Amino acid sequence: MPSTRVRPVAKDDVADVVTLVHELAEYEKAPEECHLTGEDLDAALFADQPALFGHVAELDGVAAGFALWFLNFSTWRGVHGIYLEDLYVRPAYRGHGLGKALLAELARECSRRGYGRLEWWVLDWNTPAIDFYRSVGAVAMDEWTVFRLTGDALTGLATHAGGARPAG
């Protein structure tokens, strides 16, 4: 029987996790959008006060999957939650319960810390992931639409001359 384990990301895992993130970008059909480097991930995970956290799923000592997450806050509930930025298990390692083990560890993290929810996005076409998430009791937030500012739109809004000025 294979040996599985989920544990927090360690500095020695950074290169493996970066590789896994790039594999996820390939799986999601957007490899050109993934620019993560080892230096980026190391700085985010291991800063004095990190804003990014992560777990690695191992199968027989091999980093087979990961979850990267950060805190969010529910103004309605009045407590923090976990936003799961990415969860990925290499195709060759699927079917061993690693994805469920990663989600379960994040659920335990919520429970230990008194957080009110665990949430994430999934691509509409990713039926295997959607089916998996539903199998563990996750509910789609179909009434919400995701908005994002990037690139020129983000810069343009940040430099917009109208409106209130920043304090300082």
UniProtKB/TrEMBL annotation:
| Residue intervals of the N-acetyltransferase domain | 4-152
Q: Specify the superkingdom.
A: Bacteria
Q: Mind telling me which Pfam families this protein's record contains?
A: Acetyltransf_1
Q: Which GO terms describe its molecular function?
A: N-acetyltransferase activity
| Record's keyword annotation contains Oxidoreductase | no
Does Transcription show up as a keyword for this record? no
InterPro entries recorded: Acyl_CoA_acyltransferase, Diverse_Substrate_AcTransf, GNAT_dom
Keywords linked to the UniProt accession: Acyltransferase, Transferase
Entry similarity comment: Belongs to the acetyltransferase family.
* PANTHER family referenced in this protein's UniProt entry, alphabetically: DIAMINE N-ACETYLTRANSFERASE, GH14572P-RELATED
**UniProt-recorded name of the protein:** L-amino acid N-acyltransferase YncA
Question: What is the organism of origin for this protein?
Answer: Haloechinothrix alba
